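Weekly structure sync, notes
Attendees: PL (lead), two postdocs, one rotation student
Agenda item 3: pending single-chain targets
PL asked that the sequence for the first pending target be pasted directly into the notes so everyone works from the same version. It is reproduced below exactly as submitted, 309 residues in total.
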Amino acid sequence: MENSTEMLFVLQGLNDTKSSKKTYFVVTLLVYIFTTLVNLTLISIIGLDRKLHDPMFIFLCNMCVNGIFGVSTFYPKILVDLSSDVSVTPYKACLAQMLVIYSYIFCEFTTLAVMAFDRYVAICKPLKYHSIITPRKVANFLCFTWLFSISESAIGMGLIARLPLCGFNIDKIYCTSWAVVKLSCVDTTINNIYGYILTIIHSLEAGVIFVSYVNIIKASARSPEERSKFMQTCLPHLISLGNFTVAIVFDVMYARYGSNTSLHTLRSFMSVEYLVVPPLLNPLIYGLKLNQIRRRIFRVCNRKTSTLK
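Predicted structure, written out during the meeting:
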């Protein structure tokens, strides 16, 4: 049994990249910078334009803030590991990384659920939209999303921190709860029960999203105008939701029930997909699909072009 608080975890997910670490480092750094810039751009556009201070854009802005929150704990550690001969992380740093990553994951899914409810009210109950989605409720939704997500993650980390560990090898490029729990020397029933509780909670959120979109699709079928609104505001949300959900479900299910010797490349990709793709994809698809944001971006670009001339 090891003294867990003094332990150094060895992250084995980068073992296959030893021959081309410099290339991976440059690509990873460029993706990190670009992801941060596109999210900051969308946050700035929404924040500076009063016409974009509607609930839908505020929730989108929150998603971009969460994206920066997630990548800011994932990419720097990967860059450090790619510039080192050995990928290791101290026990406390591992817990801190998991706290932030799982807060990001829970916040992302809860934000998607809130956005689905917002679109449901906007399309199915347009006359009551401003009486239901009030500024006060928007603020409450935002506070709930962050506080609930951080609390979920903090409780999980507390349950992991109590476990004495008998190993130090993690078969990933970053710390995950199940990878650490598997190293425990004692029974982990409480951790498993908490995992099932989280699954039920977020399954209920998935239920809210499903019911919202069933009603949205029914309402959108009534007229071309509603179908146009659905394609413009809901399609980006469905792309974000589908991409994020598939990656999370695959990673969780494979980590618990999959084999460590098969589908190694696919498993490695899917384990980072929800940390890399959504923060990069969300601002791009929303920025290109939503007319208000697209027009604002073109206006800013044209103004800068005119200034340069």
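Discussion points:
- Strands lie at 8-11, 88-90, 169-170.
- The radius of gyration is 21 Å.
Action: rotation student to compare against the earlier draft before next sync.
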